Amino acid sequence: MVAARSAALVILAILQARLNSTRLPGKVLLPLAGAPMILRMIERVRRARRIDRLVVATGDQDSDDPLVQVLGEAGVDVFRGPLDDVLARFIGALDACPADHVVRLTGDCPLIDPDLIDATIELLLESGADYSQNRLVDKGFPKGQDVEAITARALRRASAAAVTREEREHVTWGVWNHPELYRVVRLEPPVDEGHVRWTVDRPDDYAFVTAVYEALYPGNPAFTSDDVRAFVRSRPDLANLGGDPRA
Prior knowledge:
Blueprint: H1 2-7, E1 11-16, E2 31-32, E3 35-36, H2 37-45, E4 53-59, H3 65-73, E5 77-81, H4 86-96, E6 101-106, H5 114-127, E7 131-133, E8 135-136, E9 139-140, E10 148-151, H6 152-161, H7 165-170, H8 173-176, E11 184-186, H9 203-216, H10 225-233
Parallel strand pairs: 1-4, 1-6, 4-5, 7-11
Antiparallel strand pairs: 2-3, 6-10, 7-10, 8-9
Helix pairs in contact: 4-6
């Protein structure tokens, strides 16, 4: 019954990305296994079975032109909107690519897990909730495997009500901070790995994911999260690279 209901739904993944990050400028275009990092991430996102369409939401300023060029050459759909209003970018992308549900992803997560994307979507559909997530406030799956899924109706409602900087910048802020208004569910990990850092926001993060890709990608481009964990266990020098746990 659930499968029949969900089969008719359109699920849109919106991946937010920009080039003017402060701590690691241009990070989404840094090379990873011979291609820009964002394209390696998109490879992994496209392995998720529940996503019908993917669009990258980036800024409408000249600073993001190189990113748009790379994505265009790779055949990736792009929506450009206000650089400093990410929620408006999401609504614009949803208007351009109508869907019933939206999956929010960020472009600094090249170790994203397609199975976790599917599981987070399935939780939303099966529960009938407005919003589902697999990591919040440093609890859940590793940082860098963040997935949020939300109904298009709830996203539009949150946008119409958004008045603060946090709501405009963090997209779902007005949803998960108001459980009295929205039904929120969480995908629980087998073991809490919220302290584990797999995102790319600093030079040491980039060094970490580069080591992972150099070791695993050539033999298996579809390497899993368990493959990453096993690799880190085999490399004590990476276990706390940059001062944060990596496994």
